[in-house]
């Protein structure tokens, strides 16, 4: 009888110990799901000549207007694009927006990319790569030191309209233009060039793309899928298609300026930029 009681007691002790261990593990999992995620680095380029978070702060603090007339350096037919009548087909009744300075500027050699390949890369891919490098440096980390690390890349990016005419592709460059014009490659380009071995995900949920990308990055960190994560978004207008399309939908503010929460709100602003956080 005593022997059976001792066996039962030992069994209950083991079950109790296992239960406590399970409770500790469950608590760790639950707490990890609510663990704060730190922003340790950031970079950005926005209209108004903004090329850093500090310059963005200065622009906002000074209440400067970063909306300008349509750019003259993109081979757009500006005379044929504008028409004040929204009913006029194939034109835009808005001729202002938020544009980046020199979106074509890119130091390809710095990233070990040939001039031919760089020519085939959409501006979104170039800017995402530069933004990722600058965000890592902003955190005080040598980007080269992350090669081979479990760092994720989550970038919001929609349709690329960099090259829509196959006849414009230089001979021998079709392959570069094929991957260079793919939004899915935006995150992969960053991960491959920097040697990051976490998930590489491009997100397209329209205007919320960058926010959703950051949400997915936070989830990946909390679930232990990566130790660090680059998260952000990039947008560039390589053609006039957005102006023509949204004019047809009557979605643009005639003066090119959104007036959020105002009774005088009359449409949206088309704008460009890149912003990347290191989480």
From TrEMBL:
Domain of life of the source = Bacteria
Q: What name has this protein been given in UniProt? A: Modular polyketide synthase
State the InterPro entries in the record.
Answer: Ketoacyl_synth_N (IPR014030), NorB/c/GfsB-D-like_docking (IPR015083), PKS_Beta-ketoAc_synthase_dom (IPR020841), PKS_NRPS_Biosynth_Enz (IPR050091), Polyketide_synth_docking_sf (IPR036299), Thiolase-like (IPR016039)
GO MF annotations, alphabetized: fatty acid synthase activity
**Sequence ranges assigned to domain Ketosynthase family 3 (KS3) in this UniProt record:** 34-279
Q: Which Pfam families match?
A: Docking (PF08990), ketoacyl-synt (PF00109)
Keyword Zinc-finger attached = no
Q: Which cofactor does it need?
A: pantetheine 4'-phosphate
Q: Which CDD domains does the record cross-reference, listed alphabetically? A: PKS
Keywords, ordered alphabetically: Multifunctional enzyme, Transferase
Q: Which GO terms describe its biological process?
A: fatty acid biosynthetic process
């Amino acid at each position: 009888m005593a022997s059976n009681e001792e066996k039962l007691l030992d069994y209950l002790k083991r079950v109790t110990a296992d239960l406590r261990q399970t409770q500790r593990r469950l608590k760790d999992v639950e707490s990890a799901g609510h663990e704060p995620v730190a922003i340790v680095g950031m970079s950005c380029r926005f209209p108004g000549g903004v090329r850093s978070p500090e310059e963005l702060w200065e622009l906002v603090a000074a209440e400067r207007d970063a909306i300008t007339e349509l750019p003259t350096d993109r081979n757009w037919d500006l005379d044929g694009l504008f028409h004040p009548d929204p009913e006029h087909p194939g034109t835009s009744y808005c001729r202002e927006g938020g544009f980046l300075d020199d979106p074509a500027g890119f130091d390809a050699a710095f990233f070990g990319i040939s001039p031919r390949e760089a020519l085939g890369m959409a501006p979104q891919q170039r800017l995402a790569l530069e933004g990722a490098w600058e965000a890592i440096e902003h955190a005080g980390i040598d980007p080269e030191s992350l090669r081979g690390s479990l760092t994720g890349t989550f970038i919001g990016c929609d349709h690329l309209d960099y090259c829509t005419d196959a006849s414009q592709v230089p001979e021998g460059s079709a392959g570069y233009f094929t991957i260079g014009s793919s939004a899915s490659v935006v995150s992969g380009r960053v991960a491959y060039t920097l040697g990051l071995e976490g998930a590489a995900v491009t997100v397209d949920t329209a205007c919320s793309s960058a926010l959703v990308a950051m949400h997915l990055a936070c989830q990946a960190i909390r679930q232990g899928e990566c130790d660090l994560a680059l998260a952000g978004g990039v947008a560039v207008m390589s053609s006039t298609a957005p102006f023509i399309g949204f004019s047809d939908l009557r979605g643009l503010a005639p003066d090119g300026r959104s007036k959020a929460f105002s009774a005088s709100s009359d449409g949206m602003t088309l704008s460009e930029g890149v912003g990347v956080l290191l989480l």
